[in-house]
Amino acid sequence: MTSTVKRPATDRTRVRELSLVDYQLLAEFRHVLARFLTFSAEAAQAAGLAPRQHQALLAIKGFPGGGAVTVGDLAARLVIRHHSAVELVDRMVESGYLRRQSDAHDRRRAILALTPAGERVLAELSSVHRAELRRIAPLFGTLASRLGLSS
Question: Domains in the chain, ordered, with CATH?
Answer without folding.
Answer: 20-146 (1.10.10.10)
